[in-house]
Amino acid sequence: MPARPLTGAPVVSQLHDKIRSLLASLPSGTARPTLALLIPGDPSALAYARTIRKQFRSLELEVREFTLEDCLDIPSFVTLIKQLESDHSVTGILALQPLPSAIDRHTLSHTMPPTKDVDGVSFEQQGRLAVGRPHIAPSTPLGGLILLRHYGVDIAGKHAVVIGRSPVVGRPLALLLLAADATVTICHSRTTNLAALTRQADLVFAAVGHPGLVTPDMVKPGAVVVDFGVTVVEGRVVGDVHPAVADVAAALTPVPGGTGPVTTAVLACNLLRLAGLWTGDDV
Ligand code: NAP
Questions:
Q1: Residues 67, 112, 14, CA angle at the centre, nearest 5°?
Q2: Which residue's alpha carbon is at the smallest distance from atom 14 of ligand 1?
Q3: Residue 181 located in a structural domain
Q4: Each residue's pLDDT tens digit in the chain (283 positions)?
Q5: Atom of ligand 1 nearest to the CA of 209
Q6: What is the pTM for the complete model shown?
Q7: What is the rounded distance in angstroms from the CA atom of residue 209 to the CA atom of residue 255?
């Protein structure tokens, strides 16, 4: 039987319903949560900015946009972040990747104020996640866990193999899985015999950016496979998981239409959390 497709759309719809009901409970005249969106010139960042703009405006969340010029230097970047930090009308700040070449990840983590850090990039939010007390977790990996919970996939006690260790997806994902009581193995480009590890997994997470990296022989029959990969091949978006994995796995997130749309919805949830509107551990 082919794997159950774990599509993102119903998860997004449920998250949007909750966001709308929380916003509807605000007294009239209350300012809407506002995202300051810092946009570099890279085409992938511009495309993601369009998605955020469309989705946030459909939820009646404010988006204020700032262009990150390629020539931007660290002092100018820090000045912009500090201005946004002291601007009381700004709820959250998101700097889209890839950042201009002069701005490294550590500068971003060091500069981002934790109280306005909508995607968990600041050292404080990363530290909270590392010690198992996340407050604002990065939206992509958090979205992956929310998606699994939506479909009733058990995480506690399962062996999860995460392929990829970037600070954006793989590493925070591994920490979130650990916080959810999975037994976690993290793999990366220097891992030897990747297939021997993935074959032991109840849950396989691919966050690499190599189309077709995960093949059917690498997956235990009945495992659940979550694909974060996004690569454009001949004009089509493809994931890291070979389509034939659907013949072996019990469930699989499609690309496109799986983890991607959930990421943007979780970003909106994180904004509401920063605004003090979203409480509790459901996201
Ligand atoms: P990244 O920074 O390039 O990290 C890729 C990771 O994969 C690294 O840890 C790398 O190992 C590892 N890797 C590379 N080749 C490998 C191999 N042959 N075997 C095992 N591991 C290997 O990428 P990223 O930002 O984490 O993004 C990963 C993918 O997710 C990309 O396709 C990206 O477009 C996508 N993405 C999706 C969403 C979403 O919403 N679904 C959001 C963000 C990103 P080393 O650490 O050793 O280099």
A1: 80
A2: 189
A3: yes
A4: 799 999 999 999 999 999 999 999 999 989 999 999 999 999 999 999 999 999 999 999 999 999 998 778 999 999 999 999 999 999 999 999 999 999 999 999 999 999 999 999 999 999 999 999 999 999 999 999 999 999 999 999 999 999 999 999 999 999 999 999 999 999 999 999 999 999 999 999 999 999 999 999 999 999 999 999 999 999 999 999 999 999 999 999 999 999 999 999 999 999 999 999 998 766 5
A5: 32
A6: 0.97
A7: 12
Pick the residue whose CA is nearest to atom 32 on ligand 1: 209
| Token pair of 122 as six digits | 């600041």
Whose Cα sits closest to atom 47 in ligand 1?
Answer: 189
* Site of tokens 């690309």: 255
Q: CA 13, CA 264: separation in Å to the nearest integer?
A: 12
CA separation, residue 125 to residues 56, 61, 266 (Å): 23, 23, 16
**Alpha-helix runs per DSSP H in the chain:** 9-24, 43-58, 74-86, 105-111, 123-130, 139-150, 170-179, 194-198, 259-274
Q: What is the distance between the alpha carbons of residues 2 and 225, in angstroms, rounded to a whole number?
A: 13
Report which DSSP code applies to 241: B
- At 224, list the tokens: 């659940």
Distance 206 CA to ligand 1 centre (A): 8
Quote the domain boundaries for residue 176.
Answer: 138-259
Residue 9 maps to a domain: no
Q: What is the rounded CA–CA span in Å between residue 151 and residue 10? A: 10
- The CATH number that applies at residue 124 is 3.40.50.10860
Q: Is residue 14 part of a domain?
A: no
Q: Is 282 left (phi over 0), alpha (psi -120 to 50) or beta?
A: alpha
